[in-house]
Amino acid sequence: MKQPIFFSPIFQERIWGGDKLKTEFHYDIPSNKTGECWAISAHPNGQSVISSGLYKGLTLGELWESKRELFGGLDGEKFPLLIKILDANDDLSVQVHPDDTYANQHEKGELGKTECWYIIDCDEDAELIFGHHAQSKEMLAEMIEEGNWSSLLRRVKIKKGDFFYVPSGTVHALCKGTLVLETQQNSDTTYRLYDYDRRDEHGKLRELHLEKSKDVVKVPFEPQKVAFQTESTDTKKVTKFVESNYFTVYKWEIDGEASFDQTYPFLLCSVIEGEGFLIKEKETYTLEKGSHFLLPYDFKKFELKGQMQLIVSHV
């Protein structure tokens, strides 16, 4: 019988990180400057380890290499997606990511990075940077060189439950007081455009990547229109946030017992609120806030029981 594959996350300390991964998800984090939980990852900079079952102790990357049938025989050298939870206790740097073509040419074969954010929680006055106001590449370069960040950067107020689709080429930054689940391409390539003249633990200004940033920023900024689609029953509500070339992302809200049918090469699932059970034939698996798991190819029919919210994705 096919089993769900559960993962132990990897934690990354960041200058802007905090302790919400401990206080909200009860993870054993390395410090109170923990910014990132790499929840489901096969990237060399942080590999998730399978925590139970037949493949316990293997990394996701090893499973991708040796058991491709679990992923529907998908092609590709790299597992395609990466799931993170980010605790922005302070402002992140203003960034932009390359597309696949640029990253392959300039970053030793890395993938590009299109991503999306679900706002798990945020401060009452929280905002993020999403896009810019330059109307041409020349105007963009001029505003960067002048340090005219207040006029260049587009700020957006946010609230719990918001969703943002962030294609490669989009200027963006999470800001202070934001807890986010991020679904992205399996890439760790980030170009830092602006960092508030912030210094690292050694007193040095952090590296910027101005020329590469100017190469890849899309001008003018045109936010992608995302039309949510929702289907509901008495015990479940399924909202499709986005369907792109790289991933499709949903929110599942469970109140009671609900049936599903896994028909994709794989499903990546993260419990962001509540608790309950996954039931597959005669087997029952406990789910709690902070559980991350993969449902393999041909998993077929299963039930979720409890009061839970999950973010779910597939290629």
Key words describing this protein structure:
six-stranded antiparallel β-sheet; Jelly Rolls; mainly beta; 2 domains; nine-stranded antiparallel β-sheet; 315 residues
Mean pLDDT: 96
Major sheet = 9 strands, antiparallel
Please tally the β strands and state the result.
22
Q: Classify the secondary structure makeup into a structural class.
A: mainly beta
Q: Unreliable stretches, pLDDT < 50, 5 or more residues?
A: none
For the termini, the CA-CA separation is 23 Å
CATH topology of the largest domain: Jelly Rolls
Write the CATH homologous superfamily of the largest domain.
Jelly Rolls
Task: Provide the gyration radius in Å.
Answer: 20 Å
Return the string of H and E elements.
EEHEEEEHEEHEEHHEEEEEHEEEEEEE
Our count of domains comes out at 2
Describe the protein's architecture and organization.
The longest helix is centred in the middle third of the chain and has 10 residues, at 137-146. Strands 1, 6, 16, 17, 18, 19, 20, 21 and 22 form a 9-stranded antiparallel sheet that branches. The protein is built from 6 helices and 22 strands. The mean pLDDT is 96. It is mainly β. The chain folds into 2 domains: 5-216, Jelly Rolls (Sandwich), CATH 2.60.120; 229-314, Jelly Rolls.
In short:
The protein has six helices and 22 strands.
